[in-house]
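Exercise 3.2. Students should predict the tertiary structure of the chain below and write it as structure tokens, then compare their answer with the key that follows.

Predict this chain's 3D structure.
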Amino acid sequence: MAKLRYNLDLIFANVFFGANFSFYVSLTRDFLDFEQIFMLQVLSGALFFIPFAVFSRRSYRIARRDFGNILIVTLLVVYGWMYVLLWGSSFTSPIDASTISTLGPAFTLIMAHVLHRRRVRPVRIVGVVFALAGAGILIFDEGFVLTHGSEAYGNALVLCAVVAIAINTVIIKPQLERFGTLVVMGWYYIIGLAITAPFFWKYIGHTDFFRLPVFAQAELAYILILGTVLPMYLLYRGTEKLTSVHTALYRYIQPLIAAVLAVVRKQAKFDASNLLAAVFIFAGIILVVLGVNREAVVRAMSREPAPPAAPRNRTQP
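Answer key:
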């Protein structure tokens, strides 16, 4: 039953994240700048996660080197992931943005090899190539020119956000194991709030959010609570107890939810390029995940103790 609970955590986290893309597009096209949504996301995350850092004894045992890592990762998460993802989503379709977001495992593999010189098996290399080919189909669907403000430009920004979160995943693992996920995330938002607070007044001080249409207020509330705070908590709680294979495979829920909402709300059409890109990306990630799973099995077998030797027959004197 405990495993079921953590599987449900990952399922619901990805359902909530998938719906986010439709609401991002709706709000940024008609009512708000993406910077305004970003500032409110940081504020809502700070209100929830900072107490876990402030009231934990482990926070006061963070060494200078660990804090340096947390600082770098905060910039990657807050500006590299949250800010750039919103920026890209404001130009592209929910289907493209959510599909590209599933590339996380492939880029995590690349970053682990670059930063830690980890050996990469051929099946995982093929998986990465397939996944990158799928992303290329979406980005260059209308030609090899990235015009500012175009859909391809938005897709490229989403891809940059995925790279940022992949680097974060590789760098921050020792601190997560040492201090716990909620403590580290609390520090993400302490630092994130400090570096974004000077811009709050510029972006949200003069906006009367209560004058937005009711449905726009509901979409914004969804993004801040069900699309930011809750799924991040569920995602990290599930990831702590389950394997990276579970985390990667459940990401496929995101483009499914985003595509259904986008088509129903007439925000995008699912065309041949979307289908071809999805096939390449999903096949690529499955190969990456299979490679990871196979390596885990091999490592486990190599650590398995040898069976005890059979006792020798002793003759009585």
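Discussion points: DSSP finds 13 helices and no strands in the chain. The radius of gyration is 22 Å.
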